[in-house]
Write a structure and sequence with these properties.
Blueprint: H1 2-11, H2 16-22, E1 35-38, E2 43-46, E3 52-54, E4 63-65, E5 75-78, E6 81-84, E7 90-92, E8 101-103, E9 113-116, E10 119-122, E11 127-130, E12 139-142
Antiparallel strand pairs: 1-2, 3-4, 5-6, 7-8, 9-10, 11-12
Length: 145
């Protein structure tokens, strides 16, 4: 089933480069929410720390850590999901101040994200992806953009 949902989302993908580059004018007040989505390298890097968003496995907390370009740090941004290229799992918000995790892609509300300027916002909750420190879980917090 994951393949069907993921494949359907892939078919619905839009020009990601235009979305990401065209919206870079918004400024981020909280540096922990300042993300650079690099389509060329398929990485999502926190601009303040230089650390990369990293998926650690199914149902496990996502973290930021030194960028290696390894499979756990390579993501595709499809509107509205962010999926790890190696595992096919999707970024999933679990509520305010709770760790974000990677789960089977369903396209449900907890997996619907938009890149707005340099913030990554859950379209359902309105919360933003927030780095909490090196090798510690990323969380969803009130957007400060």
């Amino acid at each position: 089933m994951r393949r069907g949902v993921f494949g359907g989302l892939l078919m619905a993908a839009v020009s990601v480069g235009a979305i990401l580059e065209g919206s870079a004018s918004a400024s981020v007040v909280d540096p922990r929410q300042d993300w650079v989505v690099d389509v060329a390298t398929a990485t999502i890097r926190n601009a303040a720390t230089g650390a990369c968003f990293t998926g650690t496995g199914p149902d496990r907390a996502t973290i930021t850590q030194a960028c290696t370009g390894g499979p756990a740090q390579r993501f595709s941004v499809f509107v509205p999901v962010i999926a790890n290229r190696a595992s096919g799992l999707c970024l999933t918000g679990t509520g305010p101040f709770n760790p974000t995790i990677m789960q089977t892609c369903t396209g449900g509300p907890a997996q619907q994200f938009a890149v707005q300027g340099r913030a990554i916002r859950n379209q359902f909750s309105g919360l933003c992806l927030t780095a909490t420190g090196p090798a510690t879980p990323t969380v969803m917090e009130t957007c400060r953009v």
